[in-house]
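HUMAN: Ready with one sample?

ASSISTANT:
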Amino acid sequence: MSSRTRRRRRLTICALTVSAALVSLPASAAPGKNSTPFGARALARLAAERTHSTGGITHKAEAADEDDGNEADEIAEGAAQYAEARTSPGIVAPGAYGAAWNTLGELPGTGGRWHHVTDLPYNSDDPRYRDYDSNSSGGAGNVTGRMAAMAADDDGYVYAGSAGGGVWRSRTGGGHWQPISDRLSSQSTGALALDGSGRLWLGTGEATTNADAYLGSGVYVLTHPHHGNFSMRSRVGGDELESTTVHQLRFGAGKVWAATGKGVWSHSTKKLTGAWKLEFAPNPDYLPGGSKANDSSAAYKNIANDIAIDPKDPAKVVLAVGWRSGDTYNGFYTKVNGAWTRITSGLGDLPADPEGVGNVTFARSADGSRYYAIDQSPEQLNTNPDSGLEGIFVSKSGSPTGPWTKIADYKGLAADGSALTSSGYMPGVQAWYNQFLTVDPSDPQHVYAGLEEVHETKDGGSTWSAVGPYWNFGFPCWSIDPAKQTGDCNQTTHPDQHGVAIGRYHGKSFVYVGNDGGVYRRPVTGAQDSSGHATDWTSLNDGTIDTLQYYSVGIGKDLTYGGVSVTGGLQDNGQSMLRGNDKVMGSNFGGDGTDTLTDPADGCNIAQGYVYLAIQVTQNCAVNDGSWITDPSKVTSYNVAPADSATSEARFVAPLAADMKDSSTWIAGGRHVWVQTHGYAIRSGSEWTSLHDLGAGRTATAVAASGGKVYAAWCGPCNDQGFARGIAVGNADGTGWHDINLPVNGNVPNRYLSGFAVDPKNADHVYLAVNGFSRHWTEGPGAGVGHVFESKDGGTTWTDISANLPDVPTNSAVVTANGGLAVATDLGVVYRAPGRTTWQRVGRLPAIAVLQLKLSPDGRTLYAATHGRGIYSIKVSDCD
């Protein structure tokens, strides 16, 4: 999601009455008695979320929600929007990314090497940045990007699989990390598992169905995981599992079982060659090659979530399948007389009906005496504004066929010391996205369950403790005091749990959890305070691991310390701030950071985009000691969102740009193209003026301006149901606005238009980056070919200049001072030198998505915001 919006600041701490009128309040209007760390933007999002959770959704959200799930959280909408850019107007055939990676590898390379800018700790509780919309002091400590899966052994080796930055290994029980999957064509992790012989299995393709999950390239195995790296030669089977997601890998009876986005598959664990066997797909006609493979709902028709194997009889297997928002095939299946058959009765408290079975995770005790399960319910998701959790269950027979007994529900978990006790956001509200489950190998009644928080029971579910609360805000121990990391509270984990493992280091057992903030550990026999919160969590995000998922990057001169300041918006980790003398990055805004503007002349002048075009601005890097809580005049950041933010008529990640010739003129895009001319001195959303109405149902996907000439790309509808796109051109003074004629099957493909790059010497000379795949992979009306187009007449006519560019989603572009063109793609950066017509690969990055490129203030350095491996830079002169 999302990705997804950050509910961090949207949650209420005290009993607050939230009004939608807060949308337009500037930060300086915060009441002096406000004891929460949330700004107007945060509270407004909470109000909007509660509206969504009770069934009120915007037209845009409704159009994007193809499954009619009416999800309460914007992660679901973010998921649809991130996918739209890469798939609309049709369905992408399997193999697209693999083919693009191979083509990219064949391109000639430029000179130079990428410099890793963000390879140092990132402290989300940095005491320098405790301003109005910061999450600092929440208790997550050092963070990195989302971890989707974890594995650990008894020799101190820990393996962390990230959402978009590959797999990492620690030999020291956590920390001092090394990447071990950089040679693979997919850096998206779905599952990690150690088998009985100590081999490490990797299922690529994250299966959280969130905003920025990438498809995988199959399953790989590392025979000696203490050494070496994954390679393409280590892939198991053929290409059967390419271009799908892997939710879980389980072992039994000499087989590895894979729960994937296109059914359940199995393979021998002894002979790794040969094809995977399709065990079960509830709707095989929707699989690749099937009669309905091109149906718009195909991706939702064969989702498998987990596999449970009976320890007493490995031939007895239970499959948990189903789409989180509900479908007729949802349920549990087992073999009866050789055929997979839905289980309709005998499960006890565990639901058997399609409405009650969504995303499911199983866990078995080491002695085989108990099975546990978490079940997310489509019915709860679609009707309950507080939670989508059906419950946590135990089978005391040790058999996955039950009978099952419920041992926890969301109300009980909310009462166990949880930070999520407010109506509209309680434990399990994102159970379709947040789930893990594991059993202490030495105690079948000692269980860890991950939802938004980490929950623990030591008595088989009779009592629970929120040992890893969502955050520390709202607890009596919390204080914003910058002299304290998180007041008098102990460190907690980052929210949104995805992976878990138990391992040993120096003879001591630890539990390792992976979440939207990276990796954390604590002793299995750890301590708790009187509230049930753990007192001994340690962040393992020590700076040697960088899986940060940037949407954007901004660079400006550091007038205080010299050099440059580098900032960027992140999935679920706010806005990072790296000053010229920093040894540790700080977080000056919380939540989901999206687009970024930074003043090249002063890197502390920053505009940070939040979701749906909510914008926060600061002129001092948002440095604040928290004194604004008692004195609102000391606030140093301001909510300046245009009106489209309040009406949700903007993309989840909405475009924002400054005029190349006038840094005080900003352009923002939602349904309208907005302008404001006060630069970083803006203090209110009312200072924006609408230049052009793109039209009902349309929303901007990219904007650019130079010398008063403005370009705006749009889509609407933006999904594959009637997808349309276009470009509007006009002037920043409001004159001359008109739509460019882009016929559906014309020169510019009917795909998502993701970015402009304007020639700094001539505003009529502009380049266009086009997302998605060409018609070779995308089956949809007017999908067309090409990814980069050039116009020399202000956008009236366009020429395809893609040439030998790989057929891969293209996200943004920038014109260098010497007239070269750098382009960011889902698999790295390419460059066309001045006077050339062909493309080169810039340096060597893993197969990671680069979402935005920016130049340094002097134009000599190119910065790349990657969505999974942080920020990198390279000298422009090295590219020629």
Notes: Residues 1-74 have pLDDT under 50 and may be disordered.
